[in-house]
Amino acid sequence: MTIICLSYPKADSLQNPAYSPTPLFITMNIWAIILAAGKSSRLAGSGIQQKKQFLEYQGTPLFWQSVMTFARSSRISGIIIAFPPEELSRCRNLLESLNQKKYPGIPVSCTAGGDLRQDSVYNCLMALPDECDFVMVHDAARPFFGAALVHKLIDGFDSGYGGTIPVIPCNDTVKMVRDDEVLSTLVRDEIALVQTPQFFPRKVLQKSHEKSRLDEFPVTDDASMVEKSGFRVKTVPGLEGNIKITTERDLNMLENDSDPGNLRTGFGYDVHRYGGPRPMILGGIPIPGSPGIYAHSDGDVLIHALVDAILGCLGKGDIGDFFPDSEEKFEGLSSAVFLSEVLLMVQKENLELKHIDMTVIAQIPRISPYKDQIRSNLAGLTGLKPEQINVKATTEEKLGFTGSGQGIKAMVVVTAIKHK
Fold first, then answer.
1. Please, which pLDDT band fits residue 286 given cuts at 50, 70 and 90?
2. Which of 160, 294, 340, 403 keeps 20 to 30 A from 257, CA to CA?
3. Which burial class, exposed, middle or buried, applies to 250 when counting CB atoms under 10 A from its CB (0-12, 13-18, 19+)?
4. What domains are defined for the chain?
């Protein structure tokens, strides 16, 4: 991710002889450039041979997500995509097929990319129609932006600048480092993380690229090139979710959470009888003044039900299959140990817990005063946020086993996603 300094030079870009400001009109002819010519070398290093721009997302290649997002904006007149030159023929056929399947409503064409990112942008600039006067440049590996960001960039443009880019705050301390030694610490309030799409007048971007090719200076984004050519660049707030797919771990974001094939639901239920020697513990929190519990382990009915629910998501039986009460080594053992073991299974199976809904059923004791503590403790044990865990308590109106004060029950439902 590119990092820029928000303290811009005070020089007026209007004095730059290469800059001819384009007045803003209500209607502008804006085209989008989508860069899909990368080699995906970092994914290839993880053993994934498919280039990320062609990975399937919601039934189509990843780059098509950006096409459809730009098409949802009435202010984009057309799109040009840069593809790997060795795959250009195949990509033309793919584009034709996608257009026939779901025409985006604006022209979409393609051209060959280059060795460097800036070469691909330049090739696209050369392929733009004469009537295009503004350009939106976007990386195909960022599929999660929206049309609202497109409009924000256009509306935020000022003719005194050479372009508009989206940025998000840098929350970490950033240091300049050379040869494993810190040279200086940058002022965090003046640091921002840069995203795409980026918006430029076509003449500004084209002249900046021509200067770059003449001077042979490499850049990591188009705003850097425009800055090096003497223009100021304006920023607008970006989107936290506008993530770039770069590493193998990022691929999890491409999974469709609403796909029933990825969703898992597990149900857990447990009961313990009162009158025993174990002090009551719920969700790892001691409940003072409560009836004692009969149990082989520590008798934490809530965590036992949670473990069963997680095992349900995994499709791996129940708590008795892994921690039977017939084995002495589990006697008096903290139920947090059982939970920890099952969470290791969750990691190995590429399961991601999304939500836990828990209900404690007991006539006595009163559970409500401890719900926040239980939720906070379970958040720490599972790695979920407190808002992903819900703890409820109820009675059975003095009916049945719990209603007569003979014991306590717990029911837990866990929702999870199975990643590939």
1. very high
2. 340
3. middle
4. 3-254 (3.90.550.10), 263-418 (3.30.1330.50)
